[in-house]
Specification:
0% strand, elongated, SuccDH_FuR_B_TM-su, mainly alpha, single chain, 4 helices, 75% helix
């Protein structure tokens, strides 16, 4: 009788390997978005100039543009993990699921490009 080596920590796992890595990525992206929100609230509550010039002055700093874009990329990845899970769980026809996933990726890349254009006036 042969003993299977596919049991325990060294078992052979096939498939997409989603799970812990994506769970951890969503937590990391949530932390990035939370830190940015705290920074934005601190700037907002500590500021006196709530006009267009005040906001333009805030976004004139390169560090703030980078922090905003990093937060937006984190948001996009956070959305991708969540939507991919929704599509995989609830859309059973493979072709439709693939179409929705490609549309989601295209939309998120387009939004990231538009965010870069807004931040840096490309």
């Amino acid at each position: 009788m042969a003993i299977s080596k596919n049991i325990g920590a060294k078992r052979l796992v096939v498939g997409a390997h989603y799970g812990f890595r994506d769970w951890l990525a969503q937590r990391a992206t949530a932390i990035i978005m939370g830190v940015y929100t705290i920074i934005l609230l601190a700037v907002f509550l500590g500021g006196r100039n709530f006009s267009y010039e005040g906001w333009a002055g805030l976004f004139a700093h390169e560090w703030f543009k980078i922090a905003t874009f990093v937060t937006f990329v984190a948001l996009a990845y956070h959305v991708w993990v969540g939507m991919r899970d929704v599509w995989m769980d609830y859309v059973k026809p493979v072709v439709l699921r693939l179409l929705l996933q490609v549309a989601t990726i295209a939309w998120l890349i387009g939004c990231a490009g538009y965010a870069a254009q807004i931040l840096w006036r490309i």
